[in-house]
Amino acid sequence: MMRPFRDAMQAVALTLLLCRLAAAEIVLVDGGKARATIVIAQRPGEQAKQAAQILRDHIERISGARLEIKSEKGPVSGARILVGCSQAVRELGIDVPSGFTHQMNEEGFVIRTVGKDLVLAGNEDWHYRGTVFAVYDLLEQLGCRWFFPGAYGQVLPKRDRIVVGQVDRRERPSFRFRNLWYSGWMPADQEDQQNLRTWYDRNKMTALSISLPGDGSITRLAPAKRYFKSHPQIFALDKNGKRVENMLCLAEPETVRIAVSTIKETFRKDPDAISFGFAPPDGFPMCHCERCQADIPGFTGKGYGDPSLSDSWFRFANKVAEEVYKAFPNRWLFTNGYANRVRLPESIERFSPNLGIQSAMIAACTLHRIGDSKCWQRTLYKQLLDRWTEKLNCVFIYDYDPGNSLVNLPFPMLHNLKHDVPYFKARGVWGFWTEGQNAWMVTHLNYYVRAKLMWNAQADVDELVRDYCQRFYGKAADAVERYVWTLEEVIDQTTVHETWGRLMPWRVVLPPVMKKLDACMQEAGRLAERPESQLHVRVLQLVHDHMKAYLAMEQAVARGEFAKGVEWADRMLAIRDRVGKIGPGLLPHTSKWARRSKTSLEWHKTVYQGLADRAGGRKGKMVLLLPRRWAFKTDPKDIGVIYRWYLPETSEGWDTIDTTLYCQAQGHHDEHGWVTWGKIWYRTGFDVPADVKGKRLWLTIGGVYNRGVWIWVNGVLQRFKVARHWRLGHHDVRTPIDIDVTERIRPGQVNHVAVLVSTPSSGRNPRSGIHRRSFLWTPK
To answer: How large a percentage of the chain has pLDDT more than 70?
Structure first.
């Protein structure tokens, strides 16, 4: 008897609840008609006006309805959207984030409903973009997305009714510095830069508008025009004993005095300046005077400088910071831990509280997670970063994305970001200054996920990827999602290691998953229905085809088919042209100035064309390809020359190895990635046709990673020219070696070649040995 009554009461309660929920909703648009007004302060700041305009424009694009923007003093009918801090917001009792100190941690915004009012306001002081962030955050809740800059990366929903339910959110970022910048390796014009700045706002990033320690900014401490003639002793000596203008003598007391004076003068002239950044020039700079050289402890190896300048540099920086702190305790001095200054100094117990460091990850593998046990580079960097964050009040990260060569292959990094960014947050890192490229289908989701994690270090990366796939690819979402995570997993699990600017052995990493990736793309192409989804899948397919062409190019060169390698390079360049017609920053050509870099696709093509010219083109004709697999033996005791291992009948215990890949990519490392180093030997035999007798003959060794290389032909050490690396005394490791062997080759007989390679200990470039096909040829 009681059940009908109970059911009736539940129905009444449900009706009351629905009524309350309906009353709580704020209707912005209904039936394509505006039902709310955007309200700003009577005297709004520029950011509030900009934010109001952004909101109005996007609501109109979503629904077709154009909301009015009015001052808070005017009459308003319907709901109010209060954009920016105003008297109306204060009357509602809402505390909007505001203010600025040298700690730079006041950023934030509020999104809150009060009755029929919706408040979107944030900190607009200093360079903070709180109100703009609040507006874009609301638009995200309505379904807007900006995965990439420009129209291509934008997703806007279509709806004729827009309502906002009850909300009370107050947000602050996980990191103060949330920045990436285009380094210029890939072209980026003014439109690209503006699109990037707009993308910053849409994803709560920040352009670091403070003085930072760019390469060579040490010259700001003592401008040469002012001091070079009057105070020559403060400038560094080069190896030849000549004073240079771009580096200072760190052991000279007057250098500290002048640096302190310069910084104080800067802060006095500009009371708004919050920091002063200074750092040596790029590379491995140091002063070669006796005092500076005696001040260097001599630590070497591991890619952290050879020798490390950390003690000298940070002792100098700390002295300067201590003196500046006495007059300006609320300003920062920023320098960098980069190149030969990555290590911590061992001779400084305490740092000045106003000294901050930009810790550069150039010497650490870019493929693996911080602390990954199979990657000693990332494990050691964790030790360094832990110490930096213990010692200094302000540490921020300088990293590289993409962190490999300029061939524009996809560079999956989500597996790292998912793990590392929360770790950085836990260590108290202030943020990031990421060296990026205008190549958004190379980095793919990296920058978008970076932005989300930098605002909220606990953001769900899997959900972000899922959301992207569903909104950008429609019914093809599942296939694209499998594609994304397949690439991520194969990079995460690889045992090869890669640092910025090095050639990645993609033909070791990718082939095991290519069939799966092909299947994902075929399924995506079949399922994509809407025109925009079809376009997005087509771009991803072109990027995939570009990757496959690279593998085909490298495989052709490994077979000695150099002309075919050039053809595949041309195919890659043609694919870039096709993608460029859709969006210039998706899969671009290398900038003209960077094409000579020995990692660019254009450089690959030039080298392979040179080999093709020798092997059957305008320079010469192939006599024979040397075997792909040679005998291989390590020489840790450096006794091979004494025992004449270059002769075919000497010694035992030889293995065989593929000479188209450096030896570490073939498993010559331990479970932590520590590699084979010291002296290693290669040797092979080959039949030379009798009909080449009397012809001039050249031997080309395709390329050798080395700190020194020696080549014997039929038991005699050969003389040859080796292209020099940019670092004095280092051989270029990527260009072919050509040797005139006319006097050594024995036509009609078996001939022998032996190569001895000296390799460095495990460091930034953990690779050694022959890595490209060798052949005998006769010049035209």
So the answer is: 95
Element (H, E) at 83: strand 79-83
Taking residues 525-548, what's their average pLDDT? 98
User: How many residues can be counted in the chain?
Assistant: 780
Taking the C-alpha atoms of residue 558 and residue 569, their distance in angstroms, rounded to an integer, is 14
Domain match, 590 and 723 both? no
- The CA-atom distances, in angstroms, between 210 and each of 206, 214, 654 are 11, 11, 58
453 contact partners, CB below 8 Å, separation of at least 6: 174, 417, 418, 421, 422, 459, 461
> Which residue reads 């376009």 in tokens?
535
416/366 Cα distance (integer angstroms) = 9
Same domain, 37 and 144: yes
| CATH number, domain containing residue 764 | 2.60.120.260
If one counts the domains in the chain, the total is 4
**How many angstroms separate the CA atoms of 678 and 447, rounded?**
39
Please check whether residues 771 and 644 belong to one and the same domain.
yes
Q: DSSP for 415-467, please give it.
A: HHHHHHHHHHHHTT--EEEEEE-S-HHHHTTHHHHHHHHHH-TT--HHHHHHH
What is the predicted pLDDT for the residue at 2? 45
CA 383 – CA 376 distance, rounded (Å)? 11
State both tokens at 396.
Answer: 């921020």
Q: Give the contacts of 148 (CB within 8 A, at least 6 positions apart).
A: 199, 440, 447, 448, 583, 585, 586
HEC per residue, 594-631? HCCCCCCHHHHHHHHHHHHHHHHCCCEEEEEECCCEEE
Contact 688, 753 (CB under 8 A): no
In a domain, 367, yes or no: no
Domain that holds residue 546: 527-607
- DSSP structural state of residue 102: T
3-state helix, strand, coil in the chain (%, to 5): 40, 20, 40
Tokens matching residue 475: 């019914």
> Exposed e or buried b for every residue in 729-768, given b needs 16+ CB within 10 A?
eebbbbbbbbbebeebbebeeebbbbbbbbbbebbbbbbb
Give the Cα separation of 766 and 748 in Å (integer): 40
Task: Please state the separation of Cα 489 from the chain's center in Å.
Answer: 18
Cis bond before residue 232 (omega within 30° of 0) = no
Q: Do both 579 and 629 map to the same domain? A: no
Q: Which residues contact 451 (CB under 8 A, 6 or more apart)?
A: 178, 203, 204, 205
List, for residues 413-426, the tens digit of each pLDDT value. Answer: 999 999 999 999 99
Instruction: Give the model confidence (pLDDT) of 45-94 as tens digits.
Output: 999 999 999 999 999 999 999 999 999 988 898 899 999 999 999 999 99
Which pLDDT score is estimated for 21?
A: 41
Among residues 572, 607, 642, the one where a domain terminates is 607
Measured CA to CA, the distance from residue 143 to residue 137 in angstroms comes to: 10
d(CA 367, CA 378): 9
- In the 3-class helix/strand/coil scheme, how is 110-135 assigned residue by residue? EEEEECCEEEEEECCCCCCCHHHHHH
Confidence of residue 673 (pLDDT cuts 50, 70, 90): confident
pLDDT at position 15 is 42
Question: Please, are residues 358 and 338 in contact by the beta-carbon 8 Å criterion?
Answer: yes
Tell whether 125 and 216 lie within a shared domain: no
Same domain, 583 and 640: no
Collapsed DSSP state (helix, strand, coil) of residue 324: helix
CB proximity list for 206: less than 8 A, separation 6 or greater: 127, 129, 177, 178, 179, 200
Residues 639 and 728 in one domain: yes
Mean per-residue pLDDT over the chain, rounded = 93
pLDDT tens-digit readout, 676-717: 778 999 999 999 999 999 999 999 999 998 888 999 999 999
* Distance, CA of 528 to CA of 546 (rounded, Å): 21
Domain assignment present for residue 461? The answer is no
